[in-house]
Design brief:
alpha/beta, Dihydrodipicolinate Reductase, domain 2, 2 domains, seven-stranded mixed beta sheet, 29% helix
């Protein structure tokens, strides 16, 4: 951690956002404007270069007057304490890797530094990693699991949106080894914003409205990320069947997870392990008996709502809802930033 920040106490840290005009960059800007310890110092994008940020995004009028810049390899970021990368997968590592090597703290929202093994990344994303040595330096940015590792770290790999909902949903059961490591099914539905701002025929409103459709079953690139994190929690190999679906809503993720218990695991014990693990977590709510989460209740927030039951056939079923753009991306990145710099994790994230 920057010692000058630690000593100053009240000095705001200066943040640069790369990819500021995408959905996650816009969301990061929206939340950071409310952050008591952060100043947005630079905004970079390939779009709207030379325009003030409120011109393409009128919501920032009279709140932020920064000009959008084009990021170049020789761009000086000496005036910034941390860079938040809201860039596409595969493109991110080439821009952010050199910054980490220069000693600049980086919070990356792409998948480029999420995996422990470079082979897993290459198999999932179909490219050779340009900075494989940084995978050992990166911390998987799920504060509920890695809070201690995040403090002062130089590279945060923000989890994917689907993995966030699946991991938070299943973590207590896996950590306590109350469920079998095989036969796990994750049925997940996401809003259309998960595809990003760039238009395409598949995500055109008439194609998506009034329709729910599965895609990438068993081969989605988030499946190996989920399996790697599940295996860490379980301390043994875990395999899942991951079935993502596109739902006709703008934002939100609902993951329903089906697990087989190891032996006789009562619903009361399930509740105890969830409440014990998440009792002090500011953004995770374990719902009461018979209650299940709704995406509408977490929209626009960094919240995660979890409900569960046990079926007559003995399966444990867990449902977890998050906003894919907030707890699944930008909000989680800011929560990770707070953990890195030793701030209160709720700073900038208290919007209802």
């Amino acid at each position: 951690m920057d010692q000058t920040i630690m000593e100053s106490g009240n000095r705001k840290i200066r943040v640069a956002i790369l990819g500021a005009t995408g959905y996650t960059g816009e969301e990061a800007t929206r939340f950071l404007l409310d952050h008591p310890r952060v100043e947005i110092a630079r905004l970079f994008s390939l779009e709207f270069v030379g325009k003030k940020v409120w011109e393409p995004f009128p919501r920032f009028s009279k709140k932020l007057d920064l000009v959008i810049e084009e990021f170049r390899a020789d761009s000086s970021l000496e005036d910034c304490d941390v860079v938040m990368g809201c860039l596409p997968h595969k493109a991110s590592m080439g821009l952010l890797g050199p910054l980490v090597e220069k000693g600049i703290k980086v919070i990356d929202l792409s998948a480029d530094f999420r995996f422990a093994e470079v082979e897993t990344y290459s198999a999932a994303y179909g490219v050779e990693h340009k900075y494989p040595h940084l995978l050992k330096e990166a911390v998987y940015g799920l504060p509920e699991l890695n809070r201690d590792k995040l403090k002062g770290c130089s590279l945060v790999a923000v989890p994917g949106c689907y993995p966030t909902s699946a991991i938070l949903g299943a973590a207590p059961l896996l950590k306590e080894r109350l469920v079998r490591p095989s036969g796990i099914i994750i049925d997940a539905k996401t809003g259309i914003s998960g595809a990003g701002r760039a238009p395409s025929a598949r995500f055109h409103f008439p194609e998506c409205n009034e329709s729910v459709s599965p895609y990438g079953i068993g081969k989605h690139r988030h499946q190996p990320e989920i399996e790697e994190q599940f295996s860490r929690l379980y301390k043994g190999e875990v395999k899942v069947t991951f079935a993502p679906h596109l739902a006709p809503m703008t934002r939100g993720i609902l993951s329903t997870i089906y697990l087989d218990p190891q032996g006789d695991v009562s619903l009361d014990r399930v509740r105890r392990v969830y409440e014990a693990m998440y009792a002090d977590e500011p953004f995770v709510t374990v719902l009461g008996d018979g209650l299940y989460p709704r995406t509408a209740d977490v929209t626009g927030t960094n919240s995660c709502h979890i409900g569960f039951t046990k079926t007559a056939e003995g399966k444990i079923v867990v449902a977890c809802a998050i906003d894919n753009l907030v707890k699944g991306a930008s909000g989680q990145a800011i929560q990770g930033l707070n953990a890195v710099f030793g701030f209160d994790e709720t700073d900038g994230l208290t919007r209802v």
